[in-house]
Design goal:
68% helix, Four Helix Bundle (Hemerythrin (Met), subunit A), elongated, 11 helices, 250 residues, mainly alpha
Amino acid sequence: MAEDRESEVVGERRRINHPRSDFGCMASTQATSKILLLLLGAAFYDRASVPPTRPASAGEQLRADKKITLHERIMSYAIVPLWARCVYWTLSILEAAELYNKYSQGASVPPLTPTFLAGTAVLIAGTAIRIRCFRELGRHFTYAMSVRDNHSLVTSGPYGVVRHPAYTGGLLQIIGSTLVIFGADSWWSDIGYTTRLGTFLAGSSIVCGVIYAYACLRGAKEDEYLARTFGDQWKSWAQKVPYRYIPGIC
């Protein structure tokens, strides 16, 4: 009993002499967790934005449409996805560095907010969908609208749920990354918006997001040339899978 009492007294003295120890441990956990999730999210975003196949040739693109537009040329060489990856990595690293700086100086470390966690989950979900689409389509997956040599209509996997799931995954990526990078307690919302670099990165994100969102609207155009190319096979698939992006909605 005396030993137990002595241990309690020693523990109480430690708490009195080191009142910030628990706070420091919590701050360390928060900083480490957020930095890891930031870099993990950036890695996922990067993985799902890298073209899985060679760019479609001009001939393959002309089979899908009579004219190759400037937008299709840009998408063909993945210029926008490449720029978006650079912007996202930069914003993620800036925030990770800011978190580390705050922790090392003993300043308050922002908590893992519901917005940040939800954004990370949505981003990872979108990435998982796109990677599955990469694997399912194989060599047929291109950033520009095209019909490959010996092209076949893929209706399995996520393509058995909606007709254009890669766009669904891409939109989830945009939503998730926006919540993570521009949400409350982020580097950008804290100090980034007051800097030229922050303004430039935010503007670049908006431009990339708009261009990619516009690309996602190509589902109707893709349905046209797929229907023209595969005829009754496409009609049968469209009857079984009536929605382009979200089951039961659109």
